[in-house]
Structure formats: C-alpha cells, structure tokens
Amino acid sequence: MPNPYLTLSQVEAIAREAHRRQTDKAGRPYAEHLAAVAEGVRVRGGSEEQIAAAWLHDAVEDGALSRQWLDEAALPGRVKEMVLAVTKRDGEDLFAYTGRILATPGALLIKESDLAHNADPDRLAVLEPATRTRLTEKYAQVRGLLGLDGGVRPAEQRDQANPAAG
Predict the structure, then answer these.
(1) Is residue 158 included in any domain, yes or no?
(2) Across-strand partners of 29?
(3) Domain for residue 165, yes or no?
(4) Would 71 be classed as within a structural domain?
(5) 166 within a domain of the structure (yes/no)
(6) Residue (of 50, 5, 67, 57) closest to 31 by Cα position
(7) How far apart are CA 48 and CA 79, in angstroms?
(8) 9-35 per-position pLDDT tens digit
(9) For 57-67, how does the pLDDT look when each residue is reduced to its tens digit (9 = 90+)?
(10) What CATH number is given to the structural domain containing 85?
(11) H/E run at residue 102
(12) Residue 149: band (very low, low, confident or very high) from pLDDT cuts 50, 70, 90
C-alpha cells in the first residue's frame, strides 16, 4: 500500500518553492534558514515528522503557504500541529505563543533549532547594531520562556512539583 503522505524530499521542495522569492534579514535566500533549521532538528535527534515541520515552520506565518494549504496537505496530523504550534499569530502574546509550543509534542525541538540558527553570531553580525541587540534580547527571552536557557523547563518544573502529573 503506497504511503499517503508527502515524502521529506517533497516537503523540502515545496518549502523551497514557497519561499523562493523571500530573503532573510541579512538579504540571504530564505531557504538557507529553512535548511539550517531542518538540519538542526535532524542533528538534535528529531523525527522525520519534526524535520518536515522544520521545513514548513515559517510557511504559514510568512504567508508563503496558506493555512488552507496546510489543512489540506498530505501530511500527518502531528506535522501540521507542530507547524501551527511554532506559527506566531498576529497580535499574539509571547506567553501564549511559547505555551502553545511547550504544549505541542515535538514542537519545542523545532523552535530550539530555529532560535539557534536565528541567534547564530555570524548571521547576527551582518545586521545593524540596534537590530542585532533587539533580536539577541528577543531570542534570549523566548529561550528563557521555553526553558532552553539551561534551566529546568516549565513542564519539568510542574512535573517535579507534582510527580503524579507526569
């Protein structure tokens, strides 16, 4: 029986095509960021579903692909859930955003890889100093809210306080 889902290489091709005219803040092709996030997920031990979600992590947020496209795409529900978890919504509070990521299985690894690439000193070095400072502070704040700053993650704190909750 054939697999009803898009392959990882098909997802990559779709993401590259969807973002082909887009550049990052440094003027580089946006597909370079997508590839770095997907590779970051892979080297961190992520599943194929997480890697697929990494390729698509900015597609809906940036308008490269529509929410309708995602809803109708031949992708496992978990991939769609992870993409939507890391998709920042207009006017959304940072606490709601990070809470959704933490509440969605698999999404934290994608956001961790995204933040790692966004905060790469080589990428930040080409930006204006004020932009570099603003983004560095923003990424640090998000890492802290997600428990990626070396401390205990919020879910782990809750589970340690209430072992029956785990």
Answers:
(1) no
(2) 23
(3) no
(4) yes
(5) no
(6) 57
(7) 9
(8) 999 999 999 999 999 888 899 999 999
(9) 999 999 999 99
(10) 1.10.3210.10
(11) helix 94-103
(12) confident
Question: Hey, what's the torsion of the CAs at 14, 89, 103, 11, to 10 degrees?
Answer: 0
Residue 162 has pLDDT above 90, yes or no: no
**Residue 86 Ramachandran class (φ > 0 left, ψ -120 to 50 alpha, else beta):** alpha
Q: How many domains would you assign to the chain? A: 1
Residue 33 phi/psi, 5° resolution? Answer: -65, -45
Q: Which domain holds residue 30?
A: 8-151
At residue 20, φ and ψ (nearest 5 deg) are -60, -30
Q: What is the pLDDT of residue 154?
A: 46
pLDDT for residue 153: 45
- Take residue 20 and report the two structure tokens written for it: 């082909």
Interatomic CA distance for residues 52 and 155, integer angstroms: 25
CA distance 124 to 136: 8
